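FIELD: query
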Amino acid sequence: MVGLNGEVRILNPAGRRMLEVLDAAPLAAYQRSPREGPLFEVIDECLRGGAAIVRREVRLPEVGRGLYVGVTVSPLFDGEGQLHGAICLFSDLTSVKDLEEQLRLKNSLATLGELTAGIAHEFRNGLATIAGYGKLLDPAALPDAYRPYVEGIRTEAESLGLVVTNFLSFARPAEFTRSRVELRAVCERAAEEVRVEARALGGSVEVVGEFGAVLGDEVLLRQVFSNLLRNAVEACAGAAVSPSIVISSEIDGELGVSRIAVNDNGPGIEPSARERVFRPFFTSKRNGTGLGLALVQKIVVFHNGRVSVGASPAGGASLQVTMPTAG
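FIELD: result
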């Protein structure tokens, strides 16, 4: 409940938990806090117009990891019709929005996968013809000046063949064997795969924190973290930095999720590009296909999880994977 000037008079325990306000904290200590700014904007709108606002969705990006709330605000009048404040009812819609986003991503990835598969198959047919004729040509039977051209055809055909294979891997429907998977074992094995490469560059790969278990496909989950780790090593190498990569994990028992972050000390990812890095075919690498992180997102989404990108404590990139823990 708020007064006519927007001052908070009553905030029940559920509201305090949702807004991360300590039970013992006085209301005057946080009223009109910028963290809850979007919520107060709806309340102010009700107070200015004296009319109820019903079921409006509001996002509070600075509360927790981003809180979505459904808000209904009703003005409080006395017997003479004088406005004295408003009562605000709000409920946490974050889990609902997450489910909606997962469903949207699954549908989008399925549609894009069908399109990609069709293009890749047609491309592969033509490429097979080019590669076949390239192998039939005998460089020894050609003049010296033409031999490099044949070798170039063969090399490029092989490279494009790998690209097509990556396309088809992305397009393949997400089918996996569901079983209980210990995430620490998955991350340790993925870290071991890139540790030699990181050490060769004078760096290290660490695995720290509390890991949980999920229901999923161990092979696909290992592919997720292998891709993220290799991206981190390549980013550091490209910036001429000795890679210092940390896989850190925590379990949120209240929400029943496991959060794993792959943090590096490379150049990081610009905020303007963070929403695009998971789009298929988006890449900042000279020879990249733009399917590595898209495949990561596809696997995570089909495990009912989500992946996001931010800044690491070391100033590089932080790729964060959140998945529901096994019961």
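FIELD: remark
The mean pLDDT is 84.
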